[in-house]
Amino acid sequence: MQLTLAVLFSAALTSVTAEQRVSYDGYKAYSIVTGDDGQAIRDKLSDLDFVALTVHEASDHFDVAIAPDDVSEFEALGLESSVISDDLGAEFAEESIFEDYYSTSDSSLDKRQASALPALSWFNSYHTYADHRLFFNDLNAAFSQNSEIFVAGKSYQGRDIYGIHFWGAGGKGKKPAVYFHATVHAREWIAAPVEEYHAWQLINGYLTNDTQITAIVDSYDFYFIPFSNPDGFVYTQTTNRLWRKNRQPRSSSSCIGTDNNRNWPFQWSLSGGASTNPCDEDYKGLAASDTPEITTLVNYTKSINTNGIKLFIDFHSYGQYILQPYGYNCGIYPANINKQLSVANQVATRIFAYSGARYTTGASCSTLYATTGSAPDYQSGVAGAEYAWTIELRPSSSSGGGFVLPANLILTTAREQWEGLKTLFAAI
Ligand code: 0X9
Ligand code: ZN
């Protein structure tokens, strides 16, 4: 009797505290050809129950997920479009089958395994935030003389914004920085595994005396942050797979979340490249750098900038782009833009030769759309990063599942990016 009551009581507590998971069962996703008239298409959709998958109508397409009851009404509109997903909910369910991670620090493993790198089977499925943290701890353990785990600061809800710092023969903190961020947009799950794969390959190459890799690792200090928006990422796994922003409320609104890729303190005040409405997916905040995550990351950027930032990459999905600054103005470029474009083209060419995937290169404003307060704009315009890129990973916009990249394509995506990264290092 007592046990039953206790179970009932805790079940009741859970139901009041936990937010109901948002269902996308039966949602059908489309990529709509917009031509020049994105606004007219938005107007036509205004009576339908849908979720926008692209924040802006990029120059030629606008991707949406239509609620099951409105699918026939959407199709009756006769818009030129292709189907991205027949049932988003079903794809989400499949993607959320996570394999267990067996940490090399697990005390039931023997000592020899305990100092080994994590197994590459890590990349066979997506994972929880807690397991991601273990994965980096294990990389650190396997490279303990040349790496450390750092916590740059805390998210709004108090989660660690953690990362790994590693270095080569010259010792810690002596070289220009190679600085990677991922998962500023919570639903872009492929970003963290790609960054982790880069870390794994660099450390593995160093430990196995691969001369190409030791030369790279000896040249830089590496700072890799897989979750610049951990609260959002956890929320995509507990509640709403399509969440993008952070989880910070604003007193002026019942809508939650700021787009941390519109909150960096560089050209933040300009209008047009972000929203001032807290309910929008690209809400910029009330002031530059007024989210706990961006405050943390601005300070952290300053702290690692002692020998300059050679390369900054912010990993996103999707669309397959390699984008250079700036986002805030389509006519303003960094002084070395031609060199950046040339290197980006070499990377894209290498990826295409390796896997056949096409990545489009170009300055972000003119290639995609205008953004104010984005991370690469700050890294280039304020921190002085020599190369400051956004990479939008798989899938391409016209095929695949948008934010759902099937787990069996994690490794494919990571491998082609790794080939591209080696080309990048050879070119800079
Ligand atoms: O809108 C964004 O923040 C990025 N696209 S996403 O679909 N992943 O949300 C693009 C950022 C590109 N960078 C700039 N235009 N500066
Ligand atoms: Zn993104």
Give an overview of the whole structure.
GO terms for molecular function: metallocarboxypeptidase activity; zinc ion binding. The protein contains 14 helices and twelve strands. With 428 residues, the protein is α/β, with parallel strands linked by helices. The chain has two domains: 5-93, Alpha-Beta Plaits (2-Layer Sandwich); 111-236 and 273-427, Zn peptidases (Aminopeptidase, 3-Layer(aba) Sandwich). The strands form two sheets. An eight-stranded mixed β-sheet has the order 5-6-8-7-9-12-10-11, sandwiched between helices. The relative contact order is 0.13. Mean pLDDT is 92; it is low at 1-16. The site of zinc ion has 3 residues, from loops. The site of N~2~-sulfamoyl-L-arginine (0X9) has 16 residues, from helix 12, helix 13 and strand 12.
